[in-house]
Specification:
The chain is an alpha/beta fold and 249 residues long. It is built from six helices and twelve strands. The longest helix is centred in the first third of the chain and has 11 residues. It binds fe (ii) ion.
């Protein structure tokens, strides 16, 4: 299997490229529209054909490249079935493996950051989106977020995976790239150790995070699998403009 972890600096998003060596087919998890040319170049270098894009959830901080990649190279769009996006070709459900060549993901419904959020287990790796970040987790104060649901998604579903499963997050803001289930169970300050649900509720209620500046553009755009809004203010134009570096991360 071919694996690349790619970083988009504006929203600090990790995109994951998984390729099947036998069929030459590839999937991109959480591609970002402004990094699409970088991703296409990477696929070309590796001699892979993009078969699918696969989103973990409806993002609020960037626009998915799913639609633009489909238009550019004919890839199909996979995303959680419960979000019921009409632009999606494959609806992901828990208990229904998602296969691209010899690469087989086990989808895990992990609500809390958003109600439709999924993580994807692939052998000894799990792509946790914004449910579980390295020593953190996604916020739960918009997009049908639910603190209690996130507590159970992480502690009962993700933390029940084998200790040595590697955790690949949807974002990192401190240049960290990978963790493990054992490490997060031990070190995650919000959800690890013997954190109770009451303590977690308290932590999440007191984060004092600012209103996310791009959410009002990103969510409607992502409900259409990645449409850049025509009325984007100039100070946010970078979210839809191709980033200048051809290779990042
Ligand atoms: Fe998110």
């Amino acid at each position: 299997m071919i694996f690349r972890q790619l970083f988009e600096p504006l929203s600090s998003t990790y995109t994951y490229l998984l390729g099947c060596e036998e069929t030459g087919l590839a999937v991109l998890i959480d591609p970002v529209v402004s990094a699409m040319e970088r991703d296409l170049l990477e696929l070309k270098h590796l001699g892979l054909t993009l078969a699918y894009t696969l989103d973990t959830h409806i993002h609020a901080d960037h626009i998915t490249a799913a639609r633009h990649l489909k238009e550019a190279v004919g890839s199909k769009i996979a995303s959680p079935a419960c979000d019921r996006l009409p632009c999606t070709e494959v609806g992901i459900e828990e208990g229904k493996p998602f296969q691209v060549g010899s690469v087989t993901f086990q989808p895990l419904h992990t609500p809390g950051h958003t109600d439709g959020h999924f993580a994807y287990l692939l052998n000894d790796r799990v792509f946790t989106g914004d449910a579980l970040l390295i020593e953190g987790c996604g916020r739960t104060d918009f997009q049908n977020g639910d603190t209690d649901a996130l507590y159970y998604s992480v502690r009962e579903k993700l933390f029940s995976l084998a200790d040595d499963v590697l955790v690949y997050p949807g974002h990192d803001y401190k240049d960290r790239r990978v963790s493990s289930i054992a490490q997060e169970k031990k070190r995650n300050p919000r959800l690890g150790g013997d954190r109770t649900l009451e303590e977690f509720r308290d932590i999440m209620a007191n984060l004092n995070l600012p209103y996310p500046k791009f959410v009002d553009y990103a969510v409607p755009g992502n409900r259409q699998c990645g449409v850049c809004p025509p009325n984007l203010p100039e100070n946010m134009a970078n979210y839809c403009r191709q980033m200048t570096e051809s290779r990042q991360g």
